[in-house]
Amino acid sequence: MRVVIAEDSVLLREGLARLLADGGIDTVAAVGDGPALEAAVRAHRPDLAIVDVRMPPTHTDEGLRAALRVRAERPDFPILVLSQYVEERYAGDLIGRAVGYLLKERVADVTEFLEAVRQVAAGGTVIDPEVVVQLLSRQRRGAPLDSLSPREREVLALMAEGRSNTAIAARLVVTEGAVEKHISGIFAKLALGPAPEDHRRVLAVLTYLGR
Question: What pTM did the predictor assign?
Answer without folding.
Answer: 0.65
